[in-house]
Amino acid sequence: MTKRTYYDLIRQRIAHAAEEASEKARTVDHPSLAGIIREITVQECIEPYLTHSFRCGTGKIVDTTGHLTKQIDLVVYQTKLAPPLMVSKDLGIFPAECCAYAFEVKSTLNATEIKSAIEVAETVRRLRRFPKTDRDKGVTYQGAGPATILFAFGSDISGHELERYLKYDNATNPAFVALLVLGKGYWYWDPAKGWHGVTAAEFDDPAGIFAVFIAGFTNTLAAHESTLRGFTPGDYILPYEIEAKPYRKPG
Length: 251
Hints:
251 residues, alpha/beta, nine-stranded mixed sheet
């Protein structure tokens, strides 16, 4: 199987899924249901490229400080470090240490949707992960939070999508580290080099930008698989510290 074969399979998958999702959304003619259809579609397009310990779900992410994010459309998580609290098959509350990606999914990206998505991503950015307690019982946290992705099936403008996004989020550390708009482009944030990306015009098929995203996505998950750090999931279970005392035999 050649690189081109993989590319074509990925491109065809997202193109077909996007068309099918649009048809279903038009049929139900209800904004909330249409949004759910889009979220399911993205999950179905992401799941085939997960490495063995990762899963997809939707819900909220929590950390050991008690901070809880807003509802996340799609969470890519793994179960090696700590189990999520699943309310149903795909709905749950996910320990921050288990989460690799947090997706916000939009049908048609517009200014209002960008601002609402940023509000959600900000709650993800405030997560603290991998607490470490020193000898004086001070707590520090290690590493960045889950990668935040803004995924849209379309846009209400013909202009440059990243330029519009930056009107609402020009922070040194942006709320989203990647922006993927089908038919428009894919851009990602590198802390050392700034924003980089490609536009759909550079491909023979606009759906090809999804393959660019999947290439980086699978690389990241593979790196996670081989570099998972230690963690004590019991920190999520007890709301306060209990100190075990030595047993002394009576009498």
